[in-house]
Amino acid sequence: MTQSRDAFEARLRQIGADRYHDKHPFHHLLHGGGCTPDQVRAWVINRYYYQHSIPMKDAAFMSRVEDPDLRRQWRSRIEDHDGTETNPGGIRRWLKLAEAVGLDPEYVSSTEGVLPATKFAVDAYVRFVREKTLLEAVAASLTELFAPAIHKNRIAGLLQNYDFADDSSLSYFQNRLKEAPKDVAFGLAWVLDHADTQEKQDAAAKALTFKTDVLWSQLDALHAAYVEPGRIPPGAWQPGTGLLDAKAA
Ligand SMILES: O=C(O)c1cc(C(=O)O)c2c(n1)C(=O)C(=O)c1cc(C(=O)O)[nH]c1-2
């Protein structure tokens, strides 16, 4: 049976409550101050791959949209990450964080050393958005409903626990707190408007579930490689490499 708008929204929110990556042990370690400097670096290197792929995902989405009003709404997402003449954009802000934790931003932006599972998961998200219906693509972006809470926790946890954390190094997250709410309000309303049959509601819920898997599996890979059991796959980043100091020396 097709759910009411409110019941369907509650179903989507429950997916986040059950499966969002704020529950992953790696995030508890990171936000609680339990990560070593190298574990923080590994997170920054791998998460960069997500950041660099998000605008490509949004461009893939826009390339399939025929409605100029929807494209107009969507394109600010690309500018938020890639920047404009007046805004450095999220990718540059992420590289500031990379420098603050002692990484060479050129190394990080080369995406060498990214874990294979990170690439598989993130590339699967871009492919999903390229190939599935527009409804499924927008529904997959709705994990951002749950992101402001994790960004707030992260800012507070990093400021409290790590010397590298300050307004400049954490500017990526401060900005997302301003940018994400408008995106997600639009995306949620669009999904609620367009998922008007049971079949479409099921497909949207499945897309959001898929996206929680994309996020969770990245942290599983990070945890296995750099925390427990510490099995770094061939070709992935080795602590002691890709550092700023090495470049200065
Ligand atoms: O730090 C996080 O936990 C987190 C999660 C997510 C998300 O839920 O997909 C995004 C972001 N951050 C983020 O910064 C971001 O720009 C973003 C874009 C998207 C998307 O799917 O279009 N998700 C996310």
UniProtKB/TrEMBL annotation:
- Membrane spanning segments where? none
GO terms (molecular function) for this protein are:
pyrroloquinoline-quinone synthase activity
InterPro entries recorded: Haem_Oase-like_multi-hlx, PqqC, PqqC-like, Thiaminase-2/PQQC
Q: Name one Pfam family in it.
A: TENA_THI-4
Q: Which reaction does it catalyse?
A: 6-(2-amino-2-carboxyethyl)-7,8-dioxo-1,2,3,4,7,8-hexahydroquinoline-2,4-dicarboxylate + 3 O2 = pyrroloquinoline quinone + 2 H2O2 + 2 H2O + H(+)
Which pathway is recorded for this entry? Cofactor biosynthesis; pyrroloquinoline quinone biosynthesis
Q: Which Gene3D superfamilies match?
A: Heme oxygenase-like
Boundaries of each Thiaminase-2/PQQC domain copy? 10-220
| EC number in record | 1.3.3.11
Keyword terms = Oxidoreductase, PQQ biosynthesis
Superkingdom of the organism of origin: Bacteria
User: Which protein family is it in?
Assistant: Belongs to the PqqC family.
Xref: PANTHER family: 4-AMINOBENZOATE SYNTHASE (PTHR40279:SF3), PQQC-LIKE PROTEIN (PTHR40279)
**What is the stated purpose of this protein?**
Ring cyclization and eight-electron oxidation of 3a-(2-amino-2-carboxyethyl)-4,5-dioxo-4,5,6,7,8,9-hexahydroquinoline-7,9-dicarboxylic-acid to PQQ.
Q: What is this protein called?
A: Pyrroloquinoline-quinone synthase
User: What is the protein's species of origin?
Assistant: Litorisediminicola beolgyonensis
Where is the organism placed in the taxonomic lineage, from the top?
Answer: Bacteria, Pseudomonadati, Pseudomonadota, Alphaproteobacteria, Rhodobacterales
